[in-house]
Amino acid sequence: MLDDQALDVLFRQAHTHHGWLDKPVADETLRELYELLRMAPTATNSQPVRLVFVKTKEAKDRLRPTLSAGNVDKTMAAPVTAIVAYDTRFYEHMPKLMPSWSEAATKLAALAEPTRDRMAFLSATLQAGYLILAARAMGLDCGPMGGFEADQLDKTFFPDGRWKSFLLVNLGHGDVGKVRPRNPRLSFDEAARIE
Model confidence over 75-120: pLDDT tens digits? Predict the structure, then answer.
């Protein structure tokens, strides 16, 4: 089991960050981050998450008009903003990802589109959680958010329509002076039961 210090970093002391230090995140760090998050469990090892790490001023300027007003300043200040999306044609990679199931690509492609998209979305959501945990484990702070216009973002960054965004995660070194107090959490008895 991880020690208390590791659990604090990943869970108990981790906060959503809204302010950022002017400290860059290296491209190699983002590659290492992906190497960790790609180990997340996904349905039939489908690995449908797709990421765009927005770092440059030009890319941030393209992202800006898609953001809710309350997310503009913190996103523009973050060293990196990860656009988290899922690939609607994830099944095309199944021959590589599930070689033991030779019919995987054909079977998954034949699913009704809503069923297939739900499968991709749920698995990509698992991978997004691993993105946050991997970033924290690597010493980065995170600011996940849903306040953006997904259709507009997708037209800007994914004009072919294949990838569908569902989350943004600001990444970098957070300004601890701008961390908000932790809000309450539900207790076990309020949110779970054992049967």
Answer: 999 999 999 999 999 999 999 999 999 999 999 999 999 999 999 9
pTM (2 d.p.): 0.95
The single-letter DSSP state of residue 102 is: T
Within 10 angstroms of residue 94's Cβ, the number of other Cβ atoms is 22
Output the domain CATH number for residue 54.
Answer: 3.40.109.10
Nearest to 80 by CA among 142, 158, 155: 142
Q: Cα–Cα distance between 46 and 116 in angstroms, integer?
A: 11
CA 1 to chain centroid: 25
Q: How many domains would you assign to the chain?
A: 1
Spatial separation of the C-alpha atoms in residues 153 and 155, rounded to whole Å: 5
Q: Residue 192: inside a domain, yes or no? A: no
Structural domain includes residue 140? yes
Tokens encoding 74 = 């913190």
